[in-house]
Amino acid sequence: MIEFGKILNWTMTDNVLSVEFEKNNMTISVLTDEIINVFVPLWAKEHYSKAVEESDLERVLRKGRSANAVFNSEKSCIELSTAKIKAVICDGGYVDFYDLSGKEISKAYRGERVSRRTIGIFDMELLAAEGHDTTGLLNIQRPVEDVRVVDSDEPIYGLGDKSGFLNKRSYEYENWNTDDPSAHTEQFRSLYKSIPFAICKKPEYAYGLFYDNTFHSYFDLAKENASYMAYSADDGNLDLYFIGGGNIPAVVGNYTLLTGRAPLPQLWTLGYHQCRWGYSNAKDITEVAEKFRELDIPCESVQYDIDYMDGYRVFTWNEKDYGPAGELFEKLRLKGFKPVVIIDPGTKREEGYFMYEEGTKNGYFFRNADDTEDYVNAVWPGDSNYPDFGRKAVRDWWGEHVNSLTDMGVMGIWNDMNEPASFKGPLPEDVIGYDEDRKTTHRELHNVYGHYMSKATYDAMKAHIGKRPLVITRACYSGSQKYTAVWTGDNQSLWSHLQMMIPQLCSLGMCGFPIAGVDIGGFGGDTTPELLCRWIEAAAFSTFFRNHSANGCIRQEPWQFGTEVVDIYRKFVKLHYRFLPYIYDLMHEEQENGLPVMRPLVMHYEDDPVARDLNDEYLVGEKILVAPVVNQGERVRKVYLPEGTWYSLWTGEKHEGRRYFLEEAPLDHMPVYIKAGSVIPVYEEMQYVGEKPLDKLTLITAPGGGSFVHYQDGGEDLSYLEGNYNLYRFSVDENKDLTAELLNEAKTVPQYEKIRVVSI
Ligand code: MIG
User: Fold this and answer.
1) Exposure check for the chain: N or C terminus, fewer CB within 10 A?
2) pLDDT for res 138
């Protein structure tokens, strides 16, 4: 709990209100009419934000702001108004937010918390039974705390990759990037990522709360008490961004305006990828790749897991088993495969190994608490050091080695183990690292380790390859979407994990990560033919679309399970490729509006009580609704469609929304619906991106007529930033007559040779 006391003084300069309380100071900055920062310098005067970069701020501030503050002597509080929001700052440090009509949006909670639990009740009993003193665990006071009133049934969304259902109300979570290989259940408090951003939805107003603090932090989302949600942190500042907007898309738009948006990826990266930890030589990789072509299942890459390294030494190549990298890459490149390789931060301690030598000589690794030696823990290569990515010099060094990989022909980099993982117990919080030239500790840096590693990778690739980088990461923080796509780490071949995929990817999307995926088929454990089929179906519209499995589990390529599975698998990978232009269009729009590709229904149907807690369907953009089967044995799917008229993608059958109905769903069928009035661009079949010129476009139309803005570029380089793209507006009327307008004309990207319209 933070003590404030009464307001003593305040000043307003430009957009910044500084308030002096008896016991603390607070700064309230108006960034835009809807983004307000509340800052209490408990630890440092600076924000030291990793999520909000200078360049983001410039963008935010360009959106304009105006604010004025008055003292309300009757209530003894300061009223700060923007054109859209009123923040009221009161004695006691309470900050309340209202809309301009005076309706309450988010108020500080004034009472005492009923308890501050740090541990589940069941664990408490267990601990007590084991003779531990559990009294102190009931009411831990943390130096940073913010408790806010929520309505008794106010749903809460977001929080990144956290497990559990879409509506995070009644869960508690911790932000401390964690690599826990056991099956991620609903009870898990933390996973690999820390995204301390919640979206709350009042009946008439949706808003967001972003707590920008990288120390270990905690959310109790109306679990300990239905009338408030509580945020706390072990250290750091209270650095809260109140994010208005009124509806969920606007809140996501504002949040991504603040923390940045994912840049447009190369088209091929949105295609299908195959991986396995344990493709242990060139023959294995080549046979898997060739089998995809032979079976006519589209595929972009067979990815290289740690097996390709020489003794798990990062930035080395195991020539003994894989031959010269260039030869293997070239052989596969001729068949359309792009090399994507894993890298791990843990750097083997070994005399003579260049990474160890360079890192040691230059002092690039984390240091022990007493600053006498480099810090050592163990990961795959054995005893290892940890690069101190918080410093630009270290990121640049790392980047040079990333460049050596891309020079070899590598086209995508997959960053693993960057929580960071450690086999000999967690890294102590007092391990020393730097935030640029400021000496600090792992306590502050832990949650941004993956963020900085991704930034190092992205910056190097962008400058070096002249193309849009493909970076994938396991660990990250708010704002990492500027550099990297994400996957959700080590799930398992469990139906419950297939089910969790939908809320997890939707939540990541609501937190600004549009390029996200899970290991299709499940990473750990043995998949089953039925589970694999349902998984490729359910994931068919995901943006990082990869089947991956662990060493030691049964192999998970579709052909391991017979021809029925292969046929089903092919059908849904092809479905994904057909809709690539639509997915790409959504990625193009994301640059403008911050919205993800895969969206929960509540994003566009906020007032629909069914949508608010719907976990087994998702939207792709606004026009496509997917209702996959995610239960073992199920052959009839109960589908819910929200308001409007919808058409089955497969049969054209018409359905009116706002109701449930049953659809037959044999193993080879996934219900998909297109909204009335849609115009959706699709491609012809292909084996991989780059196989043939994409000079024909088909527009699928659903009755009603409508229009759609379609984006077309070269798919790889950065010239789109200079306007080298074609932008079309396609309008289709009731008679299916097409009008195409060219809104922007590319310098070097040829326009379509043929555009045809088909009705559903
Ligand atoms: O400790 O590189 O999540 O995708 O296959 C396991 C081996 C290390 C964890 C990753 C997984 C990858 C595996 N890695």
Assistant:
1) N
2) 64
Give, using CA atoms, the residue closest to atom 13 of ligand 1: 277
User: Does residue 526 have an active-site annotation?
Assistant: no
What pLDDT, in 10s, does the model give residues 166-196? 999 999 999 999 999 999 999 999 999 999 9
User: Ligand 1: which of 305, 488, 492 to mutate, judged by most atoms within 8 Å of the beta carbon?
Assistant: 305
The answer to whether residue 123 scores a pLDDT higher than 90 is no
Residue 678 Cα to ligand 1 midpoint, Å, equals 41
Determine the Cα–Cα distance for residues 587 and 603; give it in Å rounded to an integer: 17
User: Is residue 448, in this structure, part of any structural domain at all?
Assistant: no
Same-domain pairing of 69 and 126: no
By residue range, what is the domain housing residue 646?
598-674
Q: Rounded to the nearest 10 degrees, how much is the dihedral formed by the CA atoms of 512, 513, 515, 516? A: -150
- For the entire predicted model, the pTM comes to 0.97
Q: Ligand 1, residue 342: give the atom nearest the CA.
A: 2
- The yes-or-no answer on residue 419 being catalytic is yes
At which of 194, 228, 259 does a domain end?
259
Same domain, 152 and 189: yes
| Tokens 């408990």 found at | 42
- Decide: 419 in ligand 1 pocket, CB within 6 A: no
Among 674, 701, 736, the domain-final residue is 674
Percent share of the chain, pLDDT over 70: 98
- Cα–ligand 1 centroid distance for 344 (angstroms): 9
Atom of ligand 1 nearest to the CA of 551: 5
Q: What is the mean pLDDT of residues 512-519?
A: 98
314 CB within 6 A, ligand 1? no
Q: What are 587's two structure tokens?
A: 């990625």
| Spacing, Cα 525 to ligand 1 middle (Å) | 13
Number of domains, the chain: 4
Give the model's pLDDT for residue 201.
Answer: 98
The answer to whether 531 and 539 have CB atoms below 8 angstroms apart is: no
Neighbour-count burial for 33-52, b at 16+ CB within 10 Å, e otherwise: bbbbbbbbebbeeebbbbbb
Residue 151 and residue 125 share a domain = no
Looking at the domain assignment, is residue 81 inside a domain?
A: yes
Do 150 and 27 fall within a single domain? yes
Buried b (16+ CB within 10 A) or exposed e, 119-129: eeeeebeeeee
Asked if 613 and 165 touch (Cβ cutoff 8 Å), the reply is yes
Residue 137 has pLDDT above 80, yes or no: no
Ligand 1 near 490 CB (within 6 A): yes
CA distance linking residue 291 with residue 400, whole number of Å: 35
Ligand 1 centre and the CA of 550: distance in Å?
7
Specify whether 16 is located in the same domain as 70.
Answer: yes
Whether the CB-CB separation of 241 and 213 falls below 8 Å is answered with: no
CB 574 within 8 Å of CB 567? no
Q: How many angstroms does the Cα of residue 110 sit away from the middle of ligand 1?
A: 45
Q: What is the CATH number of the domain that holds 669?
A: 2.60.40.1180
Separation in Å, CA 37 to CA 199, 207, 235, 373: 16, 14, 18, 40
Whether residues 137 and 147 fall in one domain: no
Alpha-carbon distance of 535 to 545, in angstroms, equals 11
> Which tokens is 246 given?
């009124």
Query: Does 65 share its domain with 30?
Result: yes
379 — pLDDT class (breaks 50, 70, 90): very high
Mean pLDDT (whole number) for 555-560: 98
| Residue 666 and residue 705 in one domain | no
Closest CA to 497 of 188, 170, 198, 167: 188
- Which of these is catalytic: 179, 416, 557, 606? 416
State percent of the chain over pLDDT 90: 93
Determine which one of 235, 490, 519, 585 is catalytic.
Answer: 490
- 109-118 residue pLDDT tens: 999 888 766 5
Q: Is residue 137 part of a domain?
A: yes
